[in-house]
Amino acid sequence: MKPIEMYIIHIKCIHLNILFYFCNMVDVHDKKTRSYNMSRIKGKDTKPEMLVRKFLFANGFRYRLYDKKLPGKPDIVLPKYKTAIFVNGCFWHGHKNCKKFVVPKTRSEFWLNKINTNILNDKKNIITLKNANWKVIIIWECQINKTNTFKDILNQIEK
Ligand SMILES: [Zn+2]
Q: How far apart are CA 107 and CA 12, in angstroms?
């Protein structure tokens, strides 16, 4: 083999390696996104929940978590105020017109079914709670960092 041919093969190999490297990077990113999304479905102790809990506690509210006796196992329950709070992940609960709610391009039907089931269950649970004279507060993940969110929560609890 002439040196120039070896050189061309060598360059081709480098190209392939770079290609593989990027393919793997894309995959790793997908896996990270997926596991991030998966961590939301079980939805216990999520970051937005922790922020709401911290805020409530600092303001003197005492609460129970994931009360199994109530429909939908509300994330936070304030017995004294007969208030149930759901801190909803925008993806899993299908937040309408929200940037965080994007249906994945692969297996779209599967995801849509799943999310629509969640939306239906959420609605049922809210109705059941309200019929039993519970106040229901929904906090969306995307609202957590907005200025008035916590003030609104206080207003709603004390209304
Ligand atoms: Zn949202």
A: 35
In the reported structure, the alpha carbon of residue 119 is separated from the centroid of ligand 1 by a whole-number distance in angstroms of: 13
Q: To which H or E segment does residue 77 belong?
A: strand 76-78
Handedness of CA 115, 117, 120, 125 (dihedral sign): negative
- Tell me the pTM: 0.72
61 Cα: distance to centroid of ligand 1 (angstroms) = 25
Residue-wise pLDDT for 53-112, tens only, equals: 999 999 999 999 999 999 999 999 999 999 999 999 999 999 999 999 999 999 999 999
Q: How far is the CA of 89 from the centre of ligand 1 (A)?
A: 7
Q: Is the dihedral of CA 46, 51, 52, 53 positive or negative?
A: positive
Please return the burial class of 37, using the count of CB atoms within 10 Å of its CB with bins 0-12, 13-18 and 19+: middle
Cα 137 to chain centroid distance, Å, stands at 17
